[in-house]
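Hi everyone,

Forwarding the result from last night's run.
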Amino acid sequence: MTLIADGPPPLLHPRKPNIALPAQACDSHCHIFGPFARFALPETRSFTPNEAPESALRQLHDHLGFSRAVIVQSQGHGFDHRAVLQALRDGAGRYRGVALIRRTDSDETLAQYDAAGFCGVRFSFLAHLGGAPDLAAVREVIARVKPFGWHIAIHVAGHDIVQYAPFIGEIDATVVIDHMGRPPLAEGPEGPAIQALRKLLDRGHVWVKISGADRLSIKGPPYRDALAIPACLVRHAPERVVWGSDWPHVNLHGPMPDDGDLVDLLGEIAPDEKTRQRILVDNPTKLFGFA
């Protein structure tokens, strides 16, 4: 049966970025899907992605200048982690993974994921991805992965970061806020969402991924109207910021972003090489446990 994806595929030939990336640069947020002949999509998925296997991700990263990446398990594949597990094996230290975990998953499954190279668990609060999870179940999963030292990835949008700030603040583990919390762009860096995020960053155990500028942008490429928000986060807590492409840009229904544009936007967010070294190499090495 031919699958009809919920949105266009990523660009086949993104341009080469104008800025050169440092050695061991890490794309801290990306996904893979398929190959579907080997890793079929589950019937219970929340959306249908285009095929975007590890081989395509590696080709993209080699083109852009990334030698490391964190592959986040997507709800497109649901709780079937086989594709990411295979990528971790094939990558031989090139990748780390972020898992989707249920309270019913066995201790043996968690240990398998940890040994394979998973280093975090993600919880999404977005309506199109199933809505807010049961916080009691989230707390139980956090307690179960704590012995592995995994980080807790939180995916919220709008003013959810304000609503869930007390919960996030009480998590006894390293927390990573995905996509800057997807704040309302019109409110800018002084809006309540980014103010709440900065306060969380001040607690010391909370990090942020400055990914998803293309999702915030109203004007479109090269997304400079979204620049002020990630720039303010870099200025506020450069020691706890990482960058991600969010490739292959699922659940977008407009033009696909050019990943060369996204890399070059980082050059404007963090104009000096020392800060980019921190965001792309030093911080992800520490956060994700790269050797």
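The first strand starts at residue 26 and ends at 30.

Cheers,
N.
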